[in-house]
Structure formats: structure tokens, C-alpha cells
Write the C-alpha cells for this entry.
Amino acid sequence: MEPVERFLIVGLGNPGPGYAKTRHNAGFMVLDRLAEAEGLVFREKNDALLAEWDRGWLMKPLTYMNLSGRAVAPSVRKKGIPLDRLLVVHDDMDLPLGRIRLKRGGSSGGQRGVASIIEALGEAGFDRLRIGIGRPPPGVDPVRYVLSPFTPEERRTLERVLEAATEAVRVWKEEGLSAAQSRFNGLKI
């Protein structure tokens, strides 16, 4: 049996209680749920909260969203993480609430945390788990929208989305990207 490759799963968000329930913190929410289910404990190290999981790690950068690469790139290099074993979990306005999508590589799609990671790594060939948050209503500034909390009605859908996303991360870890894509990319919650 071949040894399992090391992996790093990064949830994007902003640190602090003021951001905890905002749309931009969907990545943190997925990792928090996963850590709780697996009995993992986050510990602060350098610019991130890290939790060990099997031969890999969960990471929540503490650099704020737009500087996420500052925490991610040094860990990828130091821990020797292959790009195809790096998964970044983040919010995405181009997907409606209730949808998740896994993909490898490509542009940041305007997500500044992902853009920061691409810039810091000098490569874009890592995997992403995009958590749909939908577009802001007409006249609402997108920055203000992503930093606002989910409404009570949205939270009911979000709970099911977080469950599905947590399972998608497990499938990605155990079976790889293709298996996770075939199971979760068409899912509508």
C-alpha cells in the first residue's frame, strides 16, 4: 500500500468575532464544522490556525482574506505539499446559495483570497471548493455584501450547504478531486 500524500486544506475567511457569521467566512465555517466532527483542535502557528488531520492539516489564515497567500505559501513549501493536494475552501458570489463546486486551477474569479494565494505560490494549479453565496441585491456594494451576515432564512440553507461541503472535503481527502466533483458539483440544496 502506498503512503498517503500530505495535504493541506485551507478555509478562507477573516479572523475575529465581528466576521464570524459573514458570507466571506464560509471557508472558515466549513473547516470549523469539519474540525468539530473529527475532534481536531486548531492551534495558532505563525499567521494561521492549524489542526493536524491524519497526514495533513486544516488551516485558517489569520492574515485577513486579501493576504491569505502570506500564510498559505510558506506552509505549502515547508510541509512539501504537492499542488494537487492543496484544497482551498472559499465563498463565491458567482454561485447561488445552495450550490458548491470543486475545480482545479484557473483564475481567482475575483476572489481576493484566492488571488493572494495564486500570487504567493506563483501558480494556480491547486484545487478549490467554492461555496455559493449568491450575488448582492441591486444597489448593494459587493464588499459590503460579503462582509454581512447570512439572513435567518439563508442560514437554514447554509446549514445543509456546510454539511455537504464538509463531506465533499472528506471525499476529496480520501478519493481525490474527480470523485468529489462527480458527487457534489451537480448538487442543489
